[in-house]
What does this fold into?
Amino acid sequence: MIDAGPSHCAPEIGIARPWHPEPGTISINRAEALHYLGYRGQELNVELAERIEAIIDDLEHRCTPRGTWALFPIGMPLRTDDGMPQVPLEGAAVTLSGFDILRHLRGARYAAVLACTLGIENERRLRTAAVQQPLEGAVLDAACSAYVEAAVSALDGHVAELAARCGFSTNRRYSPGYGDLPLSSQPCLLAATNATRLAGITATAGNLLLPSKSVTALIGWFDGEVADANDGPRCSCCPARGGCPFLAHGETCLARTP
It folds into this structure.
């Protein structure tokens, strides 16, 4: 433990901690899974609804997510020659680029870096199902997307609870690909959390995560008032906005109004 100031404490910084939820403690949001599947109120016949539920139920019982996280002090923000903000995390080879992450972490003392995955065995099952059983594969893919979001939310809650016990407030998580925080941040976040060794997560040459149902994220730890605590990622800054299937229907990938 380190002294983090009056009435505050914090766990040792810069140490990656594995996270393993108890089996059966994380549930898949059925509505969110259907959202990823493209469901928008269409009538589902009984047979299809039962098949979807069976796939989701099997995934919950078969797959246990895992993850890792680490805490780092936030250094003094810098600017590149073209004015782009750079937010360094002290004790890690991490420099976060962008106006949105600067805004998100404004006033934070620490940033918790998270990595979470459904694992490589689940990835193999996804690929097999996509080839051999396309309908089941599509449902499984949507269920896995909802499941990894539920898992990282559970890890998020674990970290936020620890922060609260140490006297800090936290904001919502923020991931590479949101706003103008580039996907090129992925490898350094994986390194900061030792996610390859502790959770089996790697990044491709194009900075996509493997297994595909994996997430990295950052959460700010604040002494007092939280900057932009209720502000979610903005669709106007999303690089996928032009071809987003959710926005085409007035929705977002976060299952909320844009």
